[in-house]
Amino acid sequence: GEHGPGPKGKVLGNSPPKGAPPPPKEQAPPPKEPSAPPKAADVEQVGVVAAVNGEAVKEQADPEQVTCKVANVTYMSPTHDVLLGTLVVTNYRLRFLVDGDKEKHGWLYFDEGIFDVPLGVIEKVSRVSKGQMGNAGLQSLVIYIHCKDFRRIQLRFVTVADASKVYNLVRMSAFPVSDGQGMKWLFAFEYGRVKVKSRDGIGGWAAYNAMDEWVRQGIFVNKDASSRNWRVSQINNRYDFCPSYPALLVVPINTSDEDLRAVGSFRSKNRIPAFTYYHAVNGGCIWRCSQPKVGLGNVCRADEQMWSNIRVLSGSDHARIVDCRPYKSAIANKAKGMGYEDEARYTNTSISFQNIQNIHVARTSMEKLESVISSPPSGSNTSGSSSAWSNWLACVEGTGWLNHIRVTLNASITTARFVATNAFSVLVHCSDGWDRTSQVCALAQILLDPFFRTIHGFKVLVEKDWLSFGYKMSERTGHGAEGGSDERSPCFLQFIDCIWQLLNQFPTMFEYNEEFLMCILESLYSCKFGTFFCDNERERVQHALKDRTISLWDHIDQNVDTFKNIYYSVTQEEIKKKTPLLPHPSVVCRQVTLWDRYYLRYAASPSLNEHAFQYLRKPSYRLTIPNRDTVLREAYLNEKRKVHQLEQKIISLRHSLTEKTFETTQKT
């Protein structure tokens, strides 16, 4: 479902909506008039209003419009349960309206008797006919929809004409990029056209300003970039030096642009060491880049000198290079002319390999997890036995997904400790420096700086370390493109999962809640907002996203109370002091668990939802008690008071011990 209120509009019968791609050359036969059209009230729930009594309603400037409506559609679950209803297709989503009483049907997303599938969430759509494809599939009454959020949907129609029309319409609307129409046909541009004209939802694009963030961190004294150690380089102001980097880069004051060009030639895709975080408490800092072109013996004096400048100017006696890759992978890259830094050539610097697997391994692991989730445990439909669930949980662990989360968290905590505890200058990279590097840099900053654990700070972090530093958001997510690309990967999903693990273990340290994280992921796929479009800052400027689409952050701001964590207890003073969250890696990794509310919300079997909480875990904040939020809040405050009392007692005992020691010394 969509968070917050959805748009409401009107539609002219079956006329093509504004913002929809051109129709395909071959149109399927028009479907017969539905024998039982949905009630007007039901259609209004979609956010649009269809024709009333056969007469078209006057069109209004609304981004979402109905393009197709088919009655007597059967939803078929993987467990062969069926539901009869009406399918409504708009230029933004599919909505299935269940016939009859809107009672609970066992699936979480049918609790309201409906489900929504934004077109951007659809990864694949196919025609199936008793396991056959090809020409036989074209005569099928069934459409199979595979979604990016782990949903697998089968819809059966009464006529081939109905199935053909919906199939063609969904393919046309969901995959404009694959069909060569371009991303301009994604719903966000139509949604933005209406909203931008009304001047509604402009502020979100101003959530992040690089200079403001540098001043906040303390690397510059003011917006004039006053500093004795650092400067803002304009070498990439036209994005021609490094197309995947932001326009402005912070570099050592004694490293010239000519030096940067030499360093760029030594780093993959010109992604030089670039500043991302300064820990003002002790001078430790985080820089990010891509792997060096070491090969079988290449060196670059300018690269070595730049890193030496960074280490000295930040006041670090020693430094660390955090290579996110497994050591064997880094070695293998030498055969391709790449590799990793030679410690002997980088003064007082050592390398730490973090063993995070590449995007292909992560994607395979996610596919395995999806397969396990979509297949209910043996015997769960009847008995829900603990043995069946133990086997199912073993299968979840066997996908490797939870281990990827553990390894990523371990690398991030290690990086944060290098900065906060050792005051090191830390250089983070993987291969190209935009996947695993973004994960580790961003998570380390969440641990180091409580600002990034606020709602506004999260916006800044995503804009800075994911979007401006060139994480290939569109390519990895597949916006407007049909599934199958070898370049897709769940890196950003893993990042959000890692945050949820921290939120789950330290629920008072984050201003945002679980609902906030789920909204971020839903918006990543839905294509309603322009925030996650394109692969780098340069492309976002070229497509004028700020002028043509709405930012997700506007939606967050308009519904901010929904996303606030009621257990948040960090004070403004703690934020100013940048009090870090530095748990021991083993403590965090041992408590990593499956994010049930996200991964199991569209689970195949009703019993999966019924038994999931029983055998996965029983979080205290989900206990069924009256006024649970109030009760838990009071319990938390009571425990916090006890901790404070114990701290005061410790201080008192230390004071008494000091006095007695002093008296003893005086007597002797």
From TrEMBL:
Transmembrane segments: none annotated. It comes from the Eukaryota. PROSITE patterns: PPASE_MYOTUBULARIN (PS51339), TYR_PHOSPHATASE_1 (PS00383). Residues 204-599 form the Myotubularin phosphatase domain. InterPro entries: Myotubularin (IPR030564), Myotubularin-like_Pase_dom (IPR010569), PH-like_dom_sf (IPR011993), Prot-tyrosine_phosphatase-like (IPR029021), Tyr_Pase_AS (IPR016130), Tyr_Pase_cat (IPR003595). GO terms for cellular component: cytoplasm. Residues 18-37 have a biased composition (Pro residues). The active site is at 430 (phosphocysteine intermediate). SMART domains: PTPc_motif. Residues 1-42 are annotated as: Disordered. Substrate binds at residues 333-336, 358-359, 430-436. Belongs to the protein-tyrosine phosphatase family. Non-receptor class myotubularin subfamily. This is Myotubularin phosphatase domain-containing protein.
